[in-house]
Amino acid sequence: MLINVGNKEKVLPKLKTEKSSSKKQARRRKVLDDSATVRARMEELFGKYDWKVVTNKEDLVSFLNTAEEFGFDTETTSLDIFKGELVGLSFGTLDKCIYVPLKHKVGMNYRGDIKEIESILAEKKLFGFNSKFDMKALKLHANLNVKSEWCGYLAARLMNSAEPSNNLKDLYVKYIDPFDETYSFKNLFNKPFDEYDPLIVGGYAAVDAMKHLRLGKWQQANMSENDLKLMYKLEMPLTHDLVDIELTGIKLDIDWCNKLIEELNNELEEIKAELAVEYPGLNPGSPKQVAEWIYDKLKLLDPSNGRGTGEALLAQLDHPLAEKILRYRKAQKMLSTYAAKMPADADDGIIHTTFNQYGADTGRFSSSDPNLQNIPRDPKFRKMFTAREGHMLVSCDYTQQEVYILASLANDATMKEAYSRDADFYAYMASIVFERPYEDCVKGGKHGHLRDQMKSIVLGINYDMGLSSLARGIGKSISETKEIYERFFAMCPGIKPFREERLKIAKEHGYVETILGRKRRLSALHLPDFECEDKEIEKFLNTATNEYVIEKLIEDARAQGIQVIDRRARKAYETRQVVNSAVQGSAADMTKLAIVVANRDEKLKELGCKILMQIHDEIVAEFPEENAEEGGKRLAEIMKDVGTDLIGIEMKVTPTVMKSWE
């Protein structure tokens, strides 16, 4: 059945009423009122569009034969596809759109097997928005395998990582139709979507699909050539890979989790018992009670500066109470965030995280629900994750990935020489900077501590860490740390010019580029420190050097209702991000490309490789036991080749075969 709605003939279900008890009438009246309100709001928002509800194969195929490009979208009852249901899907051209209800509790649903349109969709170009979610939902709940041509969310992130909002409705209003109204599911509906008749709410779903296509076509027309290449050669292939990675998930060792839970609970009880003896009545989980002991009873801190009990503050106290509270909080966090939470989040013993491939503005991955990027490196927590029966895990990680990249981007001869010698990089650099024998600077050597200092210095440069922070980290004075810094720059003459050049480009153009040309947009660095509606005040502020005068003028201007935008703090932050954005973003490029290449390698397919996780510079895969050794070597080889080709320095990748993650 094809039912015309939108700007054509509207066929909406009549709301029925019937006599009942007063309680039933009250409950039903509430639902009826909601449906009536929703129906009116749907007409207000979507009456101008040509949308239809489709409930049979003939009409669905007919619509899909009208074009070669479609926007597509799904409707589910939860953002967690393993806990929710797929209730419908939508398709849209530039001027028409349809909603196909699959599992609504009221109204008519699609009659037939939606799987039957898979071959038709394979010939179409499908434009989505956060299309990975939709591809996962269709594959899991409808056994429908589709590949999105375009993801509007990823395109928006590529085009402008500093975009104020990456919400579909906001982007659509900003770039496509400034007169369109923004709205959200939360402010439209009081019930799950499947509890409304599709004839009433179908426009909400159908029009989204149309917007996906309209936004996607605009993005394609306005995107740079390099960003288009990144979309088609990297981000979209990776999206397709992540669908399978996330649906596969990684197995939990439930028995080990239970042992961890018992161990942590015992530790918590032991700490509480110790506290009960030494600090009677203290509940270590109560910040208020902890503050009473810290400030009032033991007088360890002066309450005039506040009554905080945060980790950083307690870590500064050399007192048994502070030490025990920190131990308690750590054990409680390990229990609630990992040992107890992971089994609760698992689906039949499998953890299915969501990898956000543009989780950071640099293009780096993040993960959520749960966040696997933050799993402690402590082996006993990593051991929670294990291989399936008859399989082994293989972990391959890039050695010092970001430092290799820094050496390449800066084209520094000294750093390149260190890597060409196949030596311990930090020990080699320490031996040069501190003029000590290399053998004495390696781990366990007479001057092994210098290696640790050099590691902190190099990573501090990568993250543009301030001298005071770095000095605290290596246990040196600021003057001593500055001297080490200067020695490093003298021995590695390519680093300082590289930093200066990248900062200059960022100030002139407002972005930083990675090795593949991915741009991280910066919102303030290329703009003046101050902006003001009074141009005389603005000119003075941007030329003044006396801090007191600047602050006084801003205060006086604002007192008179004159708005002053002060970008100094933001610009200082963005200055610190310049080198890190280039290096970390290039590392993201490398790891993403390695996943894409590995998933298309025929040898790895033959060996039964399934990539399960990407954690920073590490890729974790699963192989049948008999193929794990060979598969690990092949995966490491691919990662090494991808990295080496990108930066021109031979990378190191080490495979580790294991039953449980280490």
Q: What would you note in describing this structure?
A:
This protein is an alpha+beta fold and 662 residues long. Among the domains are: 222 residues, Ribonuclease H-like superfamily/Ribonuclease H (Nucleotidyltransferase, domain 5), CATH 3.30.420; 100 residues, Taq DNA Polymerase, Chain T, domain 4, CATH 1.20.1060; 81 residues, no CATH class; 37 residues, no CATH class. The chain has 28 helices and 20 strands. The strands form 6 sheets. Strands 1-2-5-4-3-6-7 form a 7-stranded mixed β-sheet, with helices on both faces. Strands 18-19-13-20 form a 4-stranded antiparallel β-sheet. The protein has a 3-stranded antiparallel β-sheet with strand order 9-8-12. A hairpin with a 5-residue loop joins β14 and β15. α6 packs across α8, α10 packs antiparallel against α13 and α18 packs across α20. The longest helix is centred in the C-terminal third of the chain and has 32 residues. The chain is globular, with a radius of gyration of 29 Å. The N terminus is likely disordered.
Tell me the layout of helices and strands.
Blueprint: E1 2-4, H1 22-46, E2 51-54, H2 57-64, E3 69-76, E4 86-92, E5 97-101, H3 118-121, E6 125-128, H4 131-142, E7 148-151, H5 152-159, H6 168-175, H7 185-188, H8 198-222, H9 225-248, E8 250-252, H10 254-278, H11 287-297, H12 311-315, H13 320-339, H14 341-345, E9 350-351, E10 354-356, E11 366-368, H15 379-382, E12 385-386, E13 391-398, H16 401-410, H17 413-420, H18 425-433, H19 438-441, H20 448-462, H21 467-474, H22 478-491, H23 495-509, E14 511-513, E15 519-521, E16 530-532, H24 535-541, H25 547-559, E17 564-566, H26 568-599, H27 602-606, E18 610-615, E19 618-624, H28 628-647, E20 653-658
Helix pairs in contact: 1-8, 4-9, 5-8, 5-9, 6-8, 9-26, 10-13, 16-23, 16-26, 18-20, 21-22, 23-26, 26-28
